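Hello Y.,

Per our agreement to keep a running log of every chain we model this quarter, I'm adding this entry. I've kept the format consistent with earlier entries: sequence first, then predicted structure.
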Amino acid sequence: ISDEILKSCIALSYEKMWKQELFMDPRSAYTLREMQSTLKRSIQLLRNQVQRGRFLPQAFEVKLSEIGSLDALNYELSNGDLMHFSGQIDRIDTMETDDKVYVKIIDYKSGSQTLDPARVKAGLQIQILVYMDAALEGQERSRGKETVPAAVYLYHVKDQTVDEKKGDMTEAEIREEVLKAVGRDGLINEDETVLYALDEHPGGKNSLTSPVYPSKSNRISEKRFREILGEVRELIQTEGEEIRKGNIQAMPYRMKDANGCAYCSYHAICGFDPSLEGYDYRDVDPYVTWKGEEDV
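Predicted structure for the entry above:
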């Protein structure tokens, strides 16, 4: 897609936007221009990411209700009740070979929270992994080939900045730095077939397959990737059984300085107060990594 076509698409989207008059005053008009700028830059970055690898977008905004028969979305509880998941997968990319389909999931986010193994293990951040599990099963059914988890990425829809301390940079170098900042938040299958399909230069310092934080590698084996998906399924099954039993006591998580009450809208309803007897946080180990027991 060219920049001209992109510009035209953004303009057309604005023309179709509901209640355009709300953006007529100067302050709102500025907000709109910022929205348009962020949208344009995000689409350019997403386009560049696709061009750098062999994965191609396969589906967008896939509603789980449309593929609700998948085992990955339905959990039978011990009393025979069925627990069903709903939601929407923002984007599924695939790369197909003679005998396999490699799957990549992208989830668009407006915030800045990264995919954290500690939060995943605690059940606080499992959405994108549930999506991967469902996509693997769905692709296998529809294509009749073995499916392989390649990567899950969180894409933060916001204007990216470059550290001014880096000094004078060319426009191409700035684009590369911005691409590096937005492209690497997730979990990646470390198999070379996957790495070269995600990025034609997987060994470079700005590669989309390099970790954002070198001390917290996000590359794992296919075996470990599948183990994590299995651990998420077990966690969901366990939590479903607890809900069925009526175990719904207020026990928010606490991890370092963060806790589940900070942005909760229901504090007045649950009445959680750690200063009172019978109330306590559920502490989460912040030092969990993606490694399995045999990798330690």
